[in-house]
Amino acid sequence: MKVELRHIHKHFGNVHANDDVSLTIEAGTIHGLLGENGAGKSTLVKILSGFITRDSGEIALDGRPAHIQSPADALRYGIGMLHQDPLDFPPLTAIENFMAGSLATPALLNARAAERGFRALCSQFNFDLDPHARVSDLTVGERQQLEIVRLLANGAGTLILDEPTTGISASQKTLLFDALRRLAREGKSIIFVSHKLEDVEELCDCVTVMRRGRVVGELDLRPYRSNGHAGHWPADKRFEVTTRIVEMMFGKELAMPTKPATHQDEVILSLDGFVLRSDRLEMRIEHLAVQRGEVIGIAGLEGSGQQLFLMTCAGLEHPAAGSIHVGGRDLTHKPYNDFLRAGVCYLPADRLRDGLISGLTIQEHVALRMSGKGIFIDRAAAAQEAERAIATFNIRGRPDTAVERLSGGNQQRTQLALMPAPLNVLLMEHPTRGLDIESTLWVWQQLIARCNQGTAILFASSDLDEIVQYSDRVIVFSGGRISPPIAATELTADSLGQMIGGRF
Amino acid sequence: MESAQLLIILATAIASATPLVFACIGETITERAGVINLSAEGTVMLCAMVGFVAAKTADNVWLGFVAAAIVGALIALVVAYGAITLKQSQIAIGFVLALLCSDLSAYLGNPYVRIPGPTVPPRFPIPILQDIPLIGPLFFREGDILVYAGYVLIAVTWFYFYRTRGGLTLRAIGEQPAAAFARGHNVIALRYIYTLIGGALMGIAGAAFSLDFKAGWSYRHTAGYGWIALAIVIFGGWNPLRAALGAYLFGMLQSLASVAQSAIPDVPTQVFTVAPFVLMILVLVLTSGDWLDRLLSYLPVNARRSLSRALRTAPPAALGRPFEQD
Asked: Which residues of chain A have a CB within 8 Å of the CB of B317?
């Protein structure tokens, strides 16, 4: 089925999540939809699957306009979607899930007939699923397989997969990719939503790149491959493709570095033989010494291990090997409290989940941080301190405003206001994500003021302009490797793109 | 005590649990759809009054049941509107309604206290079935038409839950409404429907008290039964069979208490009125939670696993949470 989306718009409050997005997916192809988190990919495919209603724009299937306002409509047109978090019924068995909501299910359940169909489909794709297992006992990959089989039994001609390779094993990924290739050969159209460049390159025929709610580029990958569909790539071609896609994802022009020199000669943070290990990747930093007042920008595709790195530096995770020194003190394998006492602070990306406490007010956050000796809260002092923080940090809120009612920018200002005063190392993820320009400038003004006081900052961002503008040195995370630091002034859009693509 | 006598006591106990069966099945259906109708106590009581008054006024006992079912559904409509459409706390809505409806029954039903009214025709043995040894006298000899309707309701509900597409969908919307929505179901409408059906059944339970098993009307005529129904649903693991078993067990405890009361007249009667409620809670606690694990640990491993699987239950995952579309 040929799927066409034309001039789709969608707003969530002030956020323009889809801004005039047009996209065409040919029948029998696997189409990659690539972009960083928050680029608007999920919104777009949820519109196609009827989960979200669009503000304006048209959808056409095989050239005819389609009226999709609900998932029921989309199913009728043969559009099925695999959601990022599996939307199934965990306490029910696999076969019950298979039957639930299926158009083919008769009013009186016939478990035996359903099981026959289920097994036949599973064996077609080499899926090994026990029909009587409870879904809550299945792995994410198996739940995905179950959903694929269910959607196909419902006659889906278009399959949407939202970040399907997150949380599944390598062998399940191979199985999934084989199944998708096979379905494409049968003439079905597949939309593969991902922020993982290597998955898209391996699997997709075409790729569309989204950034900040807009389509910023499209590329047909087939001409680059040696033999059309299959995943074989000549090495030089693959590199060319990577470079072009990264260019689309991050733009060709880079902003000029604007950060004043703030670094002092004293080394505040040093990592030696530092090894980070998670279930899927292992990364190594031979030696990194960060000076007081220095800003290190961390670039790379999202999910390349930046978060693990920052959390390990913050003492929330332990390195698999190597040592970490802050201000000359060895903190390797020391508890988190020692890191706090050494003046290390970590501001996570998800402000409301990991940073601030929903339901508490600004004043209560201030009171929490004051950590007085007595049993009672010194309300007057907390109120005064909160008023002061609101004034200095220009927070649009009152001491008794609950933090979840603040805008993103004001939440970030609150987080900054709550940071302890003498600070040696500040670790941040996406310091200005979701903030308007004014707030962004203001936040960096505050951060640079901190640098002048001798704080070293390490921050990860998917905004390359931000990285180049505000960093002294940049390191790049790519495919399980970490590049050596490079001075921001020496970077070009080209060289940075190549590094993100894995060439360094 | 002779065995024939014991059999009659047990048969009466099973029969007298019928209103509770209706209430428990009704609440089970509602909660499976993801909505808690906590107004059970008030619904049962107000509907007992309404059923009695309607039957007395129309001089037709069946019209009493119809009126009770309608009022039960209307109370459930308030719950549904507050919980599903307004997305307010289901606990708060249900609790307020429980108190309000109980008091309303006392106020509105005052003129009808302790006057005679129509009742369901008694004792309706089923031919052939009543002659089966043991089963016959226990289940099919002492009861009236409502008792047998109760059996049918249990069987139909179980069959609907586990053997039909509609039942599968019902279980689905209580577990993961977003997934049901993704499969094309109208979660909101279905939740309304099942909440109303559950409310109507609770209404019928009320009328079954005032027109049959506790015939007549008095101040707080059915006090406690709504709450115990809610408890039985929880410990019955949201399964219609187990919930019904719980209701019958409670009926048994009640008739044992009355037998004990006549056997030991020195003990104040209040003890025997309250005892079944306390015993029931104890039984329910013992058959669920950590206690169950401790009990099971005395069993051989093989028996333990299958028994644990059969007894272990979890509430519908979306119980009490409104469904946010978008």
From this structure: 90-91
In angstroms, the separation between the Cα of residue A20 and the nearest Cα of chain B is 20
Tell me, which fold does domain B3-311 have in CATH?
ABC transporter involved in vitamin B12 uptake, BtuC (1.10.3470)
pLDDT score, position A372: 63
| pLDDT at residue B312 in the model | 64
Hey, is the C-beta of A336 within 8 angstroms of any chain B C-beta? no
Nearest CB to B182: which of A87, A105, A107?
Answer: A87
- pLDDT of A4: 95
The reply to whether B309 touches chain A by the CB within 8 Å rule is no
Give CATH for domain A3-87+156-250: 3.40.50.300
Asked whether the predicted pLDDT for residue B289 surpasses 70, the reply is no
Q: Residue by residue, what is the 3-state secondary structure of chain B?
A: CCHHHHHHHHHHHHHHCHHHHHHHHHHHHHHHCCCCCCCHHHHHHHHHHHHHHHHHHHCCHHHHHHHHHHHHHHHHHHHHHHHHHCCCCHHHHHHHHHHHHHHHHHHHCHHHCCCCCCCCCCCCCCCCHHHCCCHHHHHCCCCCHHHHHHHHHHHHHHHHHHHEHHHHHHHHHHHCHHHHHHCCCCHHHHHHHHHHHHHHHHHHHHHHHHHHHCCCCCCCCCCCHHHHHHHHHHHCCCCHHHHHHHHHHHHHHHHHHHHHHHHCCCCCHHHHHHHHHHHHHHHHHHCCHHHHHHHHCCCCHHHHHHHHHHHCCCCCCCCCCCCCCC
Q: Decide if A106 touches B, using CB distance below 8 A.
A: yes
Break chain B into its structural domains and give their ranges. 3-311
> pLDDT of A470-504, one tens digit each?
999 999 998 788 999 999 888 887 788 888 887 77
pLDDT mean over A225-235: 65
- Domain ranges in chain A are 3-87+156-250, 255-343+422-504, 358-419
Question: B260 and chain A: CB distance < 8 Å anywhere?
Answer: no
List, as one string, the DSSP characters of A198-228: HHHHHH-SEEEEEETTEEEEEEE-GGGSTTT
Note whether B172 contacts A: Cβ–Cβ < 8 A.
yes
List of chain A residues whose C-beta atoms are within 8 Å of the C-beta of residue B164:
107-109
Determine what percent of chain A is predicted with pLDDT higher than 90: 46
Q: How many angstroms separate the CA of residue A239 from the nearest CA in chain B?
A: 39
* Complex-level ipTM beyond the 0.90 threshold: no
B223-263 pLDDT, tens digit per residue, is 899 999 999 998 788 999 999 999 998 888 888 888 888 88
pTM above 0.90, yes or no: no
Shortest distance between the Cα of B179 and any Cα of chain A, in A, equals: 5
Residues of B in contact with A133 (CB under 8 A): none
Q: Which residues of A touch B314 (CB under 8 A)?
A: 91
Q: B182 vs A71: CB contact, 8 Å cut-off?
A: yes
Of residues A458 and A435, the one with the higher pLDDT is A458
Contacts of B180 in chain A (CB under 8 A): 100-101
pLDDT for the residue numbered B79: 96
- The residue that leads in pLDDT, A280 or A309, is A309
* Count of A-B CB contacts under 8 Å: 70
Q: How confident is the model at residue A440 (pLDDT cuts 50, 70, 90)?
A: confident
Chain B residues whose CB is inside 8 A of the A134 CB are none
Give residue B51's pLDDT.
97
What's the rounded mean pLDDT across residues A345-353? 81
Domain pair A3-87+156-250 / A255-343+422-504, same fold: yes
pLDDT, tens only, A66-109: 999 999 899 999 999 999 888 999 989 999 999 987 777 888 88
CA distance B94 to chain A (A): 25
**Interchain CB distance below 8 Å, B182 and A108:** no
CATH 3.40.50.2300 fits A255-343+422-504, yes or no: no
Mutate to test the interface with B, among A51, A54, A87, A147 (most CBs of B within 10 A): A87
Do B175 and A87 lie within an 8 Å CB cutoff?
A: no
